[in-house]
Amino acid sequence: MTASSHPKTAEASKITIAQLMQPEHANNLGNVHGGWIMKLVDEAGALACMRHCRKKVVTVFIDQMEFHQPIRIGDLVTLTAEVTFTGRTSIEAEVKVTAEDPTTGDQVHTNTAYVVYVALDSDRKPTQVPPIEAITPEQIMKLEEGRKRQTERLARRK
Hints:
The chain is of the alpha+beta class. It has a single domain, classed as Roll (Thiol Ester Dehydrase, Chain A). The protein is built from 3 helices and 7 strands, in the order βαβαβββββα. The protein has helices spanning 10-13, 34-53, 137-157; strands at residues 8-9, 15-20, 56-62, 76-86, 90-100, 107-120, 132-133. The strands form 2 sheets. Strands 2-4-5-6-3 form a 5-stranded antiparallel beta sheet. A two-stranded parallel sheet has the order 1-7. Strand 4 (76-86) and strand 5 (90-100) form a beta hairpin. It starts with 7 loop residues before the first strand and ends with a helix. The model has no long low-confidence stretch (mean pLDDT 93).
């Protein structure tokens, strides 16, 4: 059994990053640009997937991203990402985004995104990734939901 075939847990891939939103991240109304949040989501998802497979990854798909609450200048944005599904060379990460007013501690969940990456070998060719090991009922549910999303993605490509 190779190192890339040993199952890994979602917990092993989990990462959290945080960034204070500044005026350069926002429009003239004080709302952070959605594209800036998408960039952070992509970075967080990629980091979780690289942790999982210990290889470089490239983004291949971002599921629909809905913003439920605005993010404003001065908010501390926290992104938590973990692997929820793996294929042969692809990895799906769930990225949850929270905005916090650091002066009050009030937090609001702004969105969750699912991003799919493909792992690359040293020649920049797709390479096999370790399977995800689901242990808890929540992880098992996330794995099944990820499998369904992947099936739908593949069906849309045909």
